[in-house]
Design brief:
By secondary structure, the chain is α+β, with helices and mostly antiparallel strands. The chain has 2 domains: about 5-165, Aminotransferase class 4, branched-chain amino acid transferase, N-terminal domain (D-amino Acid Aminotransferase, Chain A, domain 1), CATH 3.30.470; about 170-335, D-amino Acid Aminotransferase, Chain A, domain 2 (Alpha-Beta Barrel). It has helices at about 60-65, 85-100, 105-120, 195-210, 255-265, 275-285, 325-335; strands at about 5, 25, 30-35, 40-50, 65-70, 70-75, 80-85, 130-140, 155-165, 170-175, 215, 225-230, 230-235, 240-245, 270, 290-295, 300-310, 310-315, 345-350. The strands form 2 sheets. Strands 1, 2, 3, 4, 5, 6, 7, 8, 9 and 19 form a 10-stranded mixed sheet that branches. The radius of gyration is 21 Å and the shape is globular. It starts with a strand and ends with a strand. The chain binds pyridoxal-5'-phosphate. Pyridoxal-5'-phosphate binds near residues 70, 191, 230, 254 and 296.
Length: about 350
């Protein structure tokens, strides 16, 4: 892959207010682009982050043939840049692509395009505590054609945005039993636009009632919990860490997978099994549930404070310092920021 580079005249880095990074309020200076035409990828380039030219007949705008990924780069104390498990995102990206009838982007290219872009935007990887550079690869059909069929032309892009802490306080979530995010046989496991567009309305309704997020339940019976917003879910019940299994309705989170591996390594008792809403409500009623948290790249580990279900609100007791979620967060962050040995081979260091 030969990449053409066109640099910005002037960096926007001087305009960043580092004391208030938010989440992707600031984009880095450059982006990566590649085109797919006649059955192959070409025209690999790094350009200033700029608007695209799109036909109003672009099929993606009408039919949503588009997928994305999300991963982060961190800076260690030696000012080296560490990327967390990009190979997992590469694999998942292509799994999403296949489900959406899109071409795959070779994993080697996926990793290389991220590293080459980060070499150019390396000053954008922040060094403050809990901050990172969020990396957003995406791909969509570029055909200008009002008719439904898989596209012939695609574009693969990577943009980056600065990320501070995501949720600054524990979150309130509502168990959703009317609307559905994903059904068996559908596209729930794919990071594709349809899942997020369909989730907006129920999420906004829940926000009106003071919730940050929803806990999605299975689309068939609304009986088992699946995941939450853009996070996978974990529960600590009777001192066991429990997370729902994957399947085609749940996104296979890199954070979820890392937590499962870390838990086993730390000797935390972990179970991967279905959890019913009834079990959660019962264990809230009898105080056997000690922790609930979401896990995803953007938020890392987000402790859940309140769960709403059928007009009732249940409160999770305040977490102790040695809670399972804070132990996992510390141990995950120490790997991400290069403070402990990378014993699972999760870090790709930029050289
Ligand atoms: C991205 C995402 C997650 C979390 O995946 P990570 O790889 O851990 O960031 C979970 N659920 C949904 C629906 C997502 O889009």
């Amino acid at each position: 892959m030969k990449i053409n580079v066109k640099r910005v005249r002037e960096s926007k880095l001087t305009k960043v207010n580092f004391s208030d990074l938010g989440f992707c309020k600031y984009h880095s200076d450059h982006m990566f682009i590649a085109d797919y035409e006649d059955g192959k990828w070409s025209n690999f380039r790094i350009t200033p982050h700029e608007d695209l030219n799109l036909s109003p007949a672009c099929t993606t705008l009408h039919y949503g043939q588009t997928i994305f990924e999300g991963l982060k780069a961190y800076k260690n104390k030696k000012d080296e840049i560490l990327i967390f498990r990009p190979d997992k995102n590469a694999t998942r990206f292509n799994k999403s692509a296949q489900r959406m009838c899109m071409p795959t982007f070779p994993e080697k290219y996926f990793i290389q395009s991220i590293t080459e872009l980060l070499k150019i935007d390396k000053r954008w990887v922040p060094s403050q505590e809990n901050s990172s550079l969020y990396i957003r690869p995406l791909m969509f059909a570029m055909d200008s054609y009002i008719g439904i069929k898989p596209g012939d032309k695609y574009v693969f892009i990577i943009i980056c945005g600065l990320a501070g802490g995501y949720y600054s306080e524990p979150v309130n979530v509502k168990i959703e039993t009317k609307f559905t995010r994903a059904v068996s046989g559908g596209v729930g496991f794919s990071k594709t636009a349809a899942n997020y567009a369909a989730a907006l309305y129920p999420s906004v309704e829940a926000q009106k009632d003071g919730f940050h997020q929803l806990i999605w339940t299975d689309g068939k019976e609304h009986k088992y919990v699946e995941e939450s917003g853009t996070m996978n879910l974990f529960f600590v019940i009777d001192n066991k860490l429990i997370t729902p299994p994957l399947g085609d309705t749940v996104l296979d989170g890199v954070t979820r997978d890392s937590i499962i591996i870390l838990s086993k390594d730390l000797g935390i008792d972990i179970e991967i099994r279905k959890i019913s809403v009834d079990e959660i409500i019962n264990s809230l009623d009898n105080n056997s549930i000690k922790e609930v948290f979401g896990a995803g790249t953007a938020a890392t580990i987000a402790p859940i404070k309140t769960i709403g279900y059928k007009n009732k609100k249940y409160h999770i007791p305040q977490l102790s310092r040695d809670s399972i979620s804070s132990t996992l967060l510390k141990s995950l962050n120490s790997i991400k920021y290069g403070e402990t040995e990378d014993k699972f081979g999760w870090i790709l260091k930029l050289n």
